[in-house]
Design a protein that fits this description.
Mean pLDDT: 86
Number of strands: 57
Helix content: 10-25%
Low-confidence stretches: 423-461, 556-560, 563-567, 854-878
Structural class: mainly beta
Distance between the termini: 63 Å
Strand content: 35-45%
Shape: elongated
Length: 878
């Protein structure tokens, strides 16, 4: 048959089980993730792709893995007729990524039905609400020949703030694909306690034609209440219409763990030039494109049953449409004092039929049959018959058309994966001779998300085991499940989500937030220009060059042709590898106060909601032109919580990322140039100051005293720097006695701060990076230099000495590529010798691997206990 031409033609069944985020499975497409795409490197200057689990600003339920770049190419192959690319979009992202299919732009392919020659990641190019969802499917090519095709995308963009971001692609099919439903439990229908077993199927007509649709269900599924599920039967399913049903498997509780196959029967009568002539009803609701309304018609959903209706009292308003055949059915609403609907001919004067909306002719919604029209096509006007100020109200019009249709019946398969519930931990076990009794748990209100009690028959004894704890360091958002496999986490507080930290802690994990004790990472050099280069913080502006006074200013200036340092400082002292600036720990300059007012609330504090009700805006200059800006009082922002901006009277709301944007780290807010707000205006700004409530602080760059307490690194000697630094660390600990602290190195002052530490990290004692200028692509080498090895052995000796009198763990962090198993095994073996907690990663700390437990002997401060249950062996007479 020739019924299916476009990929949207066949009826579609979607299941609410996502592939990722809100990317739900349907039976008419095959998903291909990032692993099926080849991301090119080189070629374009600055070409580089990045990957993560999705943007931090989105609802976690919407997050999907993505790869993004400002410049870069990628390519893949696929077999089929239709290609759909899934993009991650945001406001003002890149709009002009070029597409080639088999070496040509899709629009030039003969017979193509739908195409996109370029791809846009700008949310403004899509329907309202797309940015909140974060992802969108774009049809690249529909109507290709059914064979293998080569696809290439190219992003050539000079704006570092405009990203192209891709999540994967889909290949649409006419054949029905299996829908997979995972994570079910095998319990009988009588119990009906597992909401996890419920799944929703949505039947949709994505085509431009009306379809007679039917979906039948076998006895192996029931509705949400356990009753037999009736078929979905729609005699005239309009274009774009859908119908959903919630089901549950009909288990009796005795099935084995595995996959249960549920076969549904889908049938539809499709418009087909080669089909059998069939009379079908055509229904045009008030939102149907078949109905053209003049502007002053009103629409709402106030008809009985929440049905949408159209109404007007104006004699000038008109609704035009064209229908086929001699009969028209109008569904009208009636109430006391309403007027008369007239159906007029194409000349808009000849009255062909009417419907009285007055309640005297029957209340509610009434279907009125109008006959006597011509047998062919009828173009008509629907409007009031009298200029009497009375309302006319209707919900839809319906007629019958004869078209060639073909009926197609298919099997839609759901693969439902479920397992028998696992035994939960038991209480009150009494061990006897080949016998065991227990106190059965109280199941009232029990959360069935957890393993469920089945039977403890044959339990012989229990024993508590211990293993060496594991830890991970990750400064990238996402990776919730992967990081949840560890016992201790060190995270970047700006990139991490508060809800993730809470959930990890509920699982018993310890979470430490990163804070640089001796340096501060750069900020935008123009506080209100988010395209400006990173530089030091302005802060109080009392330091040299107008920077914050808490930085170090010992030698950073301008060079003369002879190489001598001359003139004023252009920036504070800067780290040679990272974009960070060294700090002065003297309280007189404000750094300890900044730790307590900005970094400690972020890492150790609770989230706090604020509404700043008198925000005074001012003008500022940016690279995009002058803008109206203001500063919030309590940064950093929690992007997972609502952020709203309104006028002081609350009557005007401004849309985030369209009407205003911000730097969540500093709290600087910039209004759009099109916004009618002038400097001096007061606004109402509501947001949440981020607070992760971590278990402790991971102090980084604690070896800054090594730089400023000697002349070895070329810096001027700073008297008393080490003592000031020691006092700073110990004071913060005294201010937060219930929190834990890990010092990263800092060996020259470690003896003086060890009583404030629950852990010490020894970073990079086994490996080094080969290319510090290109950390994203660098390789790693094993340290073999005798002098370096000797120095490290001295540190090992220091740590062993300190552990004789102090209780703390040693965390070993060394670098290697994830596929370098030989180097990884070497580092783990060295850590095992010394009783160190062991972690290996790339130097960017943004791609954590799954946990592989290292059971290490030696001194330990933290241990992870778990219970092992042993059952009695079968008796000979069993």
């Amino acid at each position: 048959m020739s019924a299916f031409t476009a990929y949207t033609d066949p009826l579609t069944v979607q299941i609410d089980q996502p592939i990722h985020g809100q990317n739900l499975q349907d039976n008419r497409s095959v998903w291909h993730g990032l692993g099926d795409i080849v991301f090119d490197s080189g070629g374009l200057t600055g070409t580089q792709w990045y990957s993560d689990n999705g943007p931090n600003g989105l609802d976690p339920a919407n997050l999907e893995p993505r790869s993004f770049c400002t410049r870069g190419g990628c390519h893949w192959t696929f077999s089929g007729r239709t290609l759909i690319v899934r993009l991650n979009v945001a406001w003002a992202w890149y709009q002009y990524t070029s597409v080639l299919v088999d070496g040509v732009v899709p629009s030039s392919i003969p017979g193509i039905l739908q195409h996109s020659d370029t791809l846009s990641c700008h949310a403004g190019d899509y329907p309202l609400g797309t940015e909140a969802a974060g992802y969108v499917d774009v049809v690249v090519a529909d109507g290709l020949t059914d064979q293998q095709h080569d696809v290439s995308l190219l992003t050539f963009n000079s704006d570092a703030a405009k990203f192209f971001s891709i999540a994967g692609f889909k290949v649409a099919t006419f054949a029905s694909q299996t829908l997979v439903r995972a994570n079910g439990w095998i319990l009988s229908l009588d119990e009906r306690v597992l909401t996890q077993n419920l799944f929703t199927l949505t039947l949709s007509n994505r085509s431009a034609n009306t379809v007679a649709a039917r979906l039948d269900f076998p006895d192996t599924v029931r509705d949400a209440d356990g009753a037999v599920q009736a078929p979905i039967l729609i005699y005239a399913m309009a274009p774009g219409a859908s119908s959903a049903v919630t089901l549950t498997p009909a288990f009796d509780g005795s099935e084995l763990s595995g996959v249960a196959t549920i076969d549904l029967t889908l049938s539809g009568q499709y418009l087909d030039p080669d089909g059998t002539p069939t009379i079908v009803p055509v229904i045009a609701t008030i939102d149907s494109p078949a109905l053209a309304f003049t502007p002053l018609w009103n629409k709402d959903a106030a008809a009985p049953g929440g049905v949408r209706r159209a109404f007007t009292s104006s004699f000038a308003e008109d609704c035009t449409f064209t229908f086929q055949g001699e009969t028209l059915w109008v569904s009208a609403s009636r109430s006391i004092g309403w007027g008369v609907i007239g159906i007029f001919a194409a000349n808009n004067t000849t009255l062909l039929g009417s419907v009285n909306c007055d309640a005297d002719f029957g209340g509610g919604v009434t279907v009125v049959e109008l006959t006597g029209f011509s047998a062919g096509s009828n173009a008509v006007h629907l409007r009031k018959t009298l200029n009497d100020g009375k309302f006319i109200v209707f919900t839809q019009v319906e007629w019958e058309e004869e078209h060639p249709y073909t009926e197609i019946e298919e099997t839609v398969q759901v693969a439902f994966a479920a397992q028998q519930p696992l035994p939960m931990q038991v209480t009150g076990v009494v061990v006897g001779d080949y016998d065991a009794t227990w106190d059965e748990p109280d199941l009232l209100g029990f959360n069935y998300d957890q393993p469920i009690v089945r039977s403890n028959a044959g339990l012989q004894y229990t024993e508590v085991m211990q293993r060496f704890p594991t830890f991970a360091v990750c400064y990238q958002g996402g990776f919730f499940d992967t990081l949840g496999e560890y016992d201790i986490l060190i995270i970047d507080p700006f990139a991490s989500h508060a809800v993730d930290v809470f959930e990890w802690q509920q699982r018993g994990l310890q979470v430490y937030g990163y804070v640089a004790s001796g340096e501060e990472v750069g900020f935008y050099s123009n506080r209100y220009d988010f395209a400006s280069a990173l530089a030091a913080n302005k802060g109080d502006g009392l330091g040299p060059g107008g920077w914050a006074s808490y930085y170090m200013f010992t030698r950073y200036g301008d060079t003369s042709p002879s190489g001598a340092w001359v003139g004023a400082w252009s920036e504070p002292d800067k780290n040679g590898v990272w974009a960070s600036y060294y700090i002065n720990p003297d309280p007189a300059h404000g750094w300890p106060a900044r730790l307590e007012s900005f970094y400690m609330p972020l890492v150790l504090g609770e989230a706090v909601d604020y509404t700043d009700e008198e925000v005074v805006t001012k003008s500022a200059s940016t690279s995009a032109g002058p803008r109206v800006v203001f500063d919030s009082a309590h940064a950093p922002f929690d992007l997972d919580q609502p952020i709203t901006l309104k006028s002081m009277d609350g009557l005007t709301s401004y849309l985030i990322y369209r009407d205003f944007t911000f730097d969540p780290k500093t709290g600087a807010v910039v209004l759009a140039a099109t916004l009618p707000v002038t400097a001096g205006t007061h606004l109402k700004f509501t947001y949440t100051r981020k607070g992760l409530n971590c278990d402790g602080v991971f102090w980084d760059v604690v070896d800054t005293p090594d730089v400023y307490s000697s002349t070895e690194f070329g810096y001027e000697y700073v008297a008393g720097y080490a003592d000031l630094f020691i006092n700073m660390i110990n004071t913060v600990k005294a201010n937060h006695p219930d929190k834990l602290f890990i010092s990263n190195r800092g060996f020259t002052i470690l003896d003086s701060i060890i009583h404030s530490c629950s852990g010490v990290m020894f970073e990079s004692y086994l490996t080094g990076a080969t290319d510090l200028a290109n950390l994203a692509t660098t390789d790693y080498y094993r340290i073999t230099d005798p002098a370096a090895i000797a120095y490290n052995e001295g540190i090992h000796t220091q740590l062993r000495r300190l552990r004789e009198d102090h209780t703390f763990d040693v965390f070993s962090l060394n670098y290697c590529n994830p596929d370098d198993l030989e180097l990884q095994a070497y580092m783990r073996a060295e850590d095992e010798k010394r009783g160190y907690l062991s972690w290996q990663s790339t130097i960017l700390l943004n791609t954590p691997a799954h946990n592989t437990t290292l059971d290490t002997p030696g001194p330990r401060h933290v241990s992870t206990a778990f219970t092992r249950y042993k059952t009695q062996a079968p008796r000979d007479d069993d």
